[in-house]
Every structure is written in C-alpha cells, then in structure tokens.
Fold:
Amino acid sequence: MARAASISWSQCADYFVMQRRNGIIELRMHTDGGPARFGFATHNAWAQAWQEIGNDPDNEVLILTGTGDQWLGIPESAALDPADAVRDLASGARPKDFAYEHGFYDLTKLLENFVFGIDIPTIAAINGPSIAHTEFALLSDITLAAETATIIDPHLLAGSAPGDGQQLTLQELIGTKRAAYHLYTGLPIGAQQALELGLVNEVLPADRLLPRAWELAESIMTRPRTARRLTHAIAQRPWKRRLVQDLGFGAAHEAFGLYADGLFH
Structure:
C-alpha cells in the first residue's frame, strides 16, 4: 500500500535538479526553479531521494546543494515569523494517518535514509541562509558553506520541541551547552562562526562553492572504489550511533508536543 503522501521518484524533478558526471551526482534542491521552499511534499521527497540515490550503483559521490542564494526558504504564503509559518502549514488539508505518515515516518526517514541508505561519500554545499533543515548538510562527510550561509533550529520559536534532527547535529558537533543555547534562542549561526565551531569545513564565496565541491568530489574519485566507500562507512559510524540512540526519542517528543498543543490535530 502506497504511503499517504508519497512522491514517486519520477516526480522528484519537482524538487531536485540532478546531474551526474563520471560517477559524481549533484543534487540541487529547488522549488519552481528557484530556492527550495519547505512543505510537507518537499519533506517527503527528500527522504525518498536519499533512498533512490543510495540504491543506484552508478552513483559514487554525492554533492548536495540548494538553488540561488538560499538553502531553504519558507512558503511564499507564510509570514517570516516561524510560528506563523507553522500555523500556515497546519491550516492546509492533510491526508489520512497524517500524524504517523508525516509527523513521525517522514521525520525519521529524512535522517535514517540519508545516514543508513547512502553508502558513498557525501559533500554538502550550503549555498545561503536557511530557515531550517540544515541537518542533512551537517550529516554529510564534508560540509562547505557560502559566506552568507546560516544554520538554525527554529523549532521552539515556532512553538515546537526541537526533535527532528537538527538538534542531534548541534549536540554532536558543538556540544550540549552550546546546542542548548541555540535550541532555546533560535539564534542563527553564521558561516564564519560555524567554521570556528566545527560545523562546517570551509567557508567560500558563493561563486567558489560548487566548483570547490566538485574539486573535492573529483579528488575522492581518484581513490579506489572500495576504499572510498569504506571511508564513508567509517566517517558515518558516529552518526549511525547517534541516530539509533536519540532520533526516535526526539521525533516522538516533537510530534507529541505538536499535537498536545493543538498545532496539528
């Protein structure tokens, strides 16, 4: 039985622009040809894309990036306030079993499919500011950032507990105390600060971001296939442990809070 809000792989062109050269696949998020904008269908498409990329043996290195000057933006109909954005999303029609299908299943599979389903080296190029969901960029083996990039967890500002993955990446990479500060305040972490904290590996001008990602990918491709895939397995091992230990806990708390407070029903 198909998932209630399932997006077929053939429909993923609505959410990604893909190109592959010599085993390197570049996946660029978009909405209508411009910067990607968050929505339930987008969220669902991400998790399915990671699985399909991992299933294709012709993919050898993944580059993940956004379109234009933003990594991820809000729907045009939503206000800039995170709480207004959540209310806007909550006001729309939702499919049967929405609480499980999106509130829990899509939420967990977004990270699980990225970490457990992709067995090739991963490079993220955060091309600009984001309203949320930089967690899979931070989960990548190598993370590059444009000078304008931001990393933020806006959940508490939106009236929700932060449980869908960004909190795990912050706790793992910058420590419990720093992570708690950003989870409570929702203050964005700029690119240079992210570099100093160890969230990203390099900060570059926007016009150098993707060329640098391709340089790194092409260098990785000169190494033996088995060695580069096993290096990815070693690099991802801490994330696998973290997800097994904490992802379900965070997801359940976020989902419970949303429904208990009446944001979704």
Residues 1-5 have pLDDT under 50 and may be disordered.
